[in-house]
Every structure is written in structure tokens, then in C-alpha cells.
Specification:
alpha+beta, Beta-Lactamase, 4 domains, five-stranded antiparallel β-sheet, 18 strands, elongated, PdtaS_GAF, ATP-binding, ATP binding
């Protein structure tokens, strides 16, 4: 699609909305290729206007392809250029005057269809249909090809593609092979493909669809009409190019309407239908699993908060200052883990917005560690979203290092603690993270750093859980800087 987008951007003669219209065309023309049982190529003028270049190609899923090699970006073949040039100038559908023999084994019929908007030809589509088969086409094939012709004819009038067509998620969108119904102007079914008939039979309709009003039979099949989508009447009558979904007897049917128009009025419609029951059931299972996972995180958070409360109560009963301090530190560590689970319980993804989480924890860690002194906190950079298996150990590490900076670096004095984060790309192309925690305190002690339980926890978590490195160094201007580097590869 890069060639397509580049050519569209470089074309100077396009009017407002023309580029979007061409993008909409290519986004929806698989349907036409399937209906016509033909390859389709979109030709666009070269920047020098001395010919045409292929900017998009679609192959049918209802038939074999005529072109196994991709020629997008190539100049038009000399034998095809006159037909495309004629369609461009006449703004009418042009057919090759004779059967084209492209190789010894294959004959094809070529049609050139100009895509016209606001009276200006924007591009030309060529359809390439295999003529080597000697069998008579079935009614299904004849109907499909007529439908393709009607839609392409609308393209020459600027009526297709329609900006009102659905452009959202295509998950569950009906395709030609899933089922097709052709309606007349009054919404009566003129033709229903075998798959279309099967789809409505699963809804509970056991009669023939042809000759019946699609709106009436759909209404009869619906059990709970209070849940009907308000767009349903316009879709089943073929009046608007919308999508809707109906459900009955545990079966979900996705419907899409394509109104058929000429220059003066609507003369019919196509309705594509697809049984999406299994797809919706799986989506519901995922929603249920997501809700269960969030509930588990919520309960874990509640349990950890209960443990922290019990540790707080126990610390108040301790007579030993050393024992009381140990319980308070354990309480802070449990509360930090609970904060991560609280964040996970509020979203669907298994990633954590670490900036939002750490903003609260960073200030809280400094305040709890310095109840009798004034400590400022400043944060720079962004962590971004981190995998949940990184979030918990990293939050614990930051909590321990901030507490250590306040209790030892800034002991009995005012000061500032900085937290800095920087995302980067490693040589291997992975996401990396550098985290620095600095203070303007007394600095590093002479000799080896005395490692208490907190720093032992930090080293263990950084090297084993985060797979990173950690270094202590003096800060310029006084104080200490702790720097960690890690690669963000999930270990789940």
C-alpha cells in the first residue's frame, strides 16, 4: 500500500475528499473481485501523465487468480493501455473488442471501468476474467457478475464507494462467500445464494427466501424486538449502506447492505450476511476472562492491603524499635505490590501505565520515609507502559531506593530526591529502559556500600526479575546517583 499512498499524495489534480474516496475504494473492492470472479487492477496516471501505473491489485477469493506475479508499481502493458485510455476519456465502461490471449494456456476478457467523482476521472479499474472454461456459468455466477457490474457502474457515476459505508472494525463483517441476497427496489428477495439461505435457516426460517420481503421475514424471526438495532429496517430494505446485526435462537447474523443506484434513483440492493455466532461467543468468553482477571487482581489487592493493615497493627504492639521498624518496612513493601495490582484491576491490558502508578508511589515513599523532615520529589522523563511482570519488581526497587535515599542520604536534613526515566532502543531493536534515582544528600560512604536487607532486595530484583544492571556513583554537586538499565522483554 506504500506505492498506492505515495502516488495519491503526489497527484496534484485531486480535489477535496478525492484521496479519501480512493482509499475507501481499495478498502472495499475485495467484494467486487469476489462478485466478478476476476482479478482487479487499479491504474493511476504517472506523475508525468505519459501513461498509467498499477497502484493496487486484488485477487478474487471465489475463483483462481489470473496473475500469480505481483506487478503493482509497474507501467501499463502496451496492449492494455489503449483500453484504459479510452475508459479514462469516455468515462464509460469499455470492453476489449476481442479475446486477449496472454499466454498459451489462458484467455481472458478485460473490462476498463473509470472511477469518476464530481465529473472527474480519478483512476481506472481493469477486471481480468478467465474465459478458458467451457462450462456454462451457473445462476449464482451470472447473478454475482451482474451485481459486480451494477456496483462498478455506480463507480463511473461517483455513487460508489459511499462515504456512508461502514469503515470501522471489519471483524465479523460479512463477505460475498458468506451469503448474498439481491433485493428489488421494494425490498423483495430476487436471489439468495445457498449460503445466504443457510444463514437464515439457522435463524429459524425454513422457507424459500426468494419472492419474500426481507424486512418482513426478519421481523418475524426476531423474538425480542426491544433489542433491535435502530439501523435494522434501513439495512434489510437496502436503503442505506450500513451494517447491523440480528440475534435469534442463539444465532447472531451480521448484515451489510449495498444500495444499487443509477443516475436518478435506487433500483435495488445487495445484502451480505454472515453467521457470526461462534465469533460473538468467543468474544463473550474473552470479555468474561478479562473481567475474571480484573476481579482476581482486585481481590489480591484487597488481601495485600489486609496484610499491610495487620503488619501495621502488629508494629504498634512491638516494644523493640528494631522490630517495629522491620514491620513498617514490610508493610510498605506489601502496599507497593498492592498498588500494582490495583492498577491492573482497572484495565483490560496486562500492561501498566507506570507513570501514573509511580507518580503516587514516588511521593508517598518519600513522605513515609521522612515524617519529620521536608523532602522534595522531582520526576523527569517517562516510563510509558510496562509489562505487568516488570511493574511489580520495578515499583519495589524504586520504593526501596527512594526510602534508602531519604533515610540515609538525607538523614536529618532537607533535600531533594530525583526520579528519572528514559526509554531507548537497544542494538538488537528491543525496548530498553534507564532509571536513575538521585539525591543531594551526604553522598556515598567511604569504601563498600553497606548492604542491608533493602539493598539486598534491590540487587536481587534488578538482576533476576528485571534482568538488568545497577550501579551507585557520586552525584555532581553532592549526593548519590543510582542508575539501572534493563531490557523490556516480558518474562510471562
Amino acid at each position: 500500500m506504500a506505492i498506492f499512498g505515495d502516488m495519491i499524495r503526489e497527484r496534484s489534480g485531486l480535489g477535496p475528499g478525492d484521496a479519501e474516496w480512493l482509499h475507501l475504494l481499495v478498502g472495499d473492492w475485495q467484494m467486487i473481485a469476489d462478485l466478478s470472479f476476476a482479478d482487479m487492477v487499479l491504474w493511476f496516471p504517472t506523475p508525468e501523465d505519459d501513461g498509467f501505473v498499477a497502484i493496487a491489485h486484488v485477487r478474487p477469493s471465489t475463483s483462481h487468480t489470473m496473475f500469480h506475479a505481483d506487478f503493482v508499481g509497474e507501467q501499463i502493458q502496451p496492449e492494455l493501455e489503449p483500453l484504459v485510455e479510452l475508459a479514462w476519456k469516455s468515462q464509460n465502461i469499455e470492453r476489449s473488442q476481442e479475446t486477449k490471449i496472454w499466454n498459451a494456456d489462458m484467455a481472458m476478457r478485460v473490462e476498463a471501468i473509470p472511477m469518476v467523482r464530481n465529473g472527474v476521472t480519478l483512476a481506472v479499474i481493469t477486471t481480468h476474467m478467465d474465459l478458458s472454461s467451457s462450462r456454462m456459468p451457473s445462476r449464482l455466477e451470472l447473478t454475482y457478475r451482474q451485481c459486480a457490474f451494477d456496483i462498478l457502474k455506480m463507480g463511473t457515476l461517483g455513487l460508489w464507494p459511499d462515504f456512508a459505508s461502514p469503515t470501522g472494525s471489519r471483524r465479523g463483517a460479512p463477505r460475498v462467500g458468506d451469503g448474498l441476497l439481491r433485493l428489488d427496489v421494494d425490498g423483495i428477495v430476487q436471489y439468495a445464494s445457498p449460503n445466504g439461505v443457510s444463514a437464515f435457516r439457522r435463524l429459524g426460517d425454513g422457507e424459500s427466501l426468494e419472492g419474500r420481503s426481507l424486512a418482513e421475514l426478519t421481523t418475524r424471526l426476531l423474538k425480542d424486538r426491544r433489542m433491535v438495532d435502530e439501523s435494522l429496517p434501513l439495512v434489510v430494505t437496502g436503503r442505506m449502506p450500513w451494517r447491523t446485526e440480528i440475534e435469534s435462537r442463539g444465532v447472531s447474523l451480521s448484515l451489510r447492505a449495498i444500495p444499487l443506484r443509477d443516475s436518478t434513483e435506487r433500483f435495488g440492493a445487495l445484502v451480505l450476511c454472515r453467521d457470526v455466532s461462534e465469533l460473538r461467543r468467543r468474544e463473550q468468553e474473552l470479555v468474561t476472562k478479562d473481567a475474571t482477571i480484573r476481579e482476581i487482581h482486585h481481590r489480591v489487592k484487597n488481601n495485600l492491603q489486609t496484610v499491610a493493615a495487620l503488619l501495621r497493627m502488629q508494629s504498634r504492639r512491638m516494644h523493640s524499635e528494631e522490630g517495629k521498624l522491620g514491620l513498617e518496612q514490610a508493610m510498605r513493601r506489601v502496599a507497593t505490590i498492592a498498588l500494582v495490582h490495583e492498577t491492573l484491576s482497572q484495565g483490560l491490558a496486562q500492561n501498566v501505565d507506570f507513570d501514573e502508578l509511580i507518580d503516587r508511589q514516588f511521593r508517598l515513599s518519600a513522605e513515609v520515609a521522612s515524617p519529620s523532615q521536608r523532602v522534595r520529589t522531582e520526576r523527569e522523563g517517562a516510563f510509558g507502559e510496562l509489562p505487568s511482570d516488570f511493574a511489580t519488581p520495578l515499583a519495589l526497587v524504586i520504593n526501596e531506593l527512594v526510602t534508602n535515599a531519604v533515610e540515609h542520604g538525607l538523614q536529618d536534613r532537607e533535600g531533594t530526591v530525583w526520579l528519572m526515566a528514559n526509554r531507548f532502543k537497544t542494538a538488537a531493536g528491543d525496548d530498553g529502559l534507564t532509571v536513575k534515582i538521585a539525591d543531594d544528600g551526604v553522598g556515598l560512604p567511604e569504601g563498600t556500600i553497606a548492604e542491608g536487607l533493602g539493598l539486598q532486595i534491590v540487587r536481587t530484583l534488578v538482576t533476576s526479575e528485571l534482568g538488568g544492571t545497577i550501579d551507585w556513583s557520586p552525584r555532581e554537586g553532592g549526593g548519590t546517583v543510582v542508575e539501572m538499565q534493563m531490557t523490556l522483554i516480558s518474562r510471562n
